[in-house]
Amino acid sequence: MNRFLAALAAALLIAGASADSHALEIGARGAYWFPEISGAVRTITAGIVETDIDLKNTLGVQDENLPFGELFFSFGNSTLRVGFTKLDFTGSRVLNQNITFNGQNFAVAEAVTTDIDISMIDASWQYDILRPSVGVGSVNLGLLLQVKYVDGDVRLTGSATGTAAETFQAPIPMVGAAFGVGLVKNLLRADIRGAGIGFSGNHLVDVEAYASITPFPFVKLQGGYRYLGLQIDEAEILASLRLKGPYAGVQISF
């Protein structure tokens, strides 16, 4: 991890030193996401692997609409981004099976409420390897280096048992690519970008594709689709989460 961060910092310095100082853009982007959720969670207490619990079928976790956003700064062929996504899900279900979570036993017919709270902070650098312009059109193909910090909490509260909770934190380095096509001086655009990694039972994939239209100067309206797949395998918890669905947003830049 330390080597990855050092390499990323060095690359940013080199890119900043060589960038075209006349090609600057700064902006913010926000969106509202409408994903479907699926996944499972299980804990390991005192070396004992406990129940593999399906989030939807067993705990009744519901789909939620979620905001996410980012700040960005472009100079030359480089773009720096800092993003934030907040995942909040709840569920309520009368159990049809016995489950064990973090050493607590929840029995059949017990009413259980579930709360999932995950914050994700992203820092990324995109460097466009290809960026040709053809008349009023343009194309870009770039390399993406990213670090996503994930901070999560899963809590089960039973009507008879009480509350059992488990937390997890992980900084996750990722690598990916970005591709975009612009028309009419970028008044119309289509972009796709994604990054991912897998190591030691952990994996993370975050991909989005979106189209943009510029109805007013400095303002872009966007619509797209995002897929997020996350698995955290730590000493005391194994959590998998998949989110996929459309989103709508707006970008303001200068």
Keywords:
254 residues; mainly beta; 10-stranded antiparallel β-barrel; 16 strands; elongated
pLDDT average, as an integer?
A: 91
Radius of gyration: 21 Å
Strand order of the largest sheet: 1-5-6-9-11-12-13-14-15-16
User: Strand portion, in percent?
Assistant: over 45%
Question: How would a crystallographer describe the biggest sheet?
Answer: 10 strands, antiparallel, barrel
Structural class computed from helices and strand pairing: mainly beta
Total strands: 16
The ordered string of helix (H) and strand (E) elements is: HEEEEEEEEEEEEEEEE
Descriptive overview:
- The protein is mainly beta and 254 residues long.
- The chain contains one helix and 16 strands.
- The strands form two sheets. A ten-stranded antiparallel beta barrel has the order 1-5-6-9-11-12-13-14-15-16. Strands 7-8 form a two-stranded antiparallel sheet.
- It is elongated, with a radius of gyration of 21 Å.
- It starts with a helix and ends with a strand.
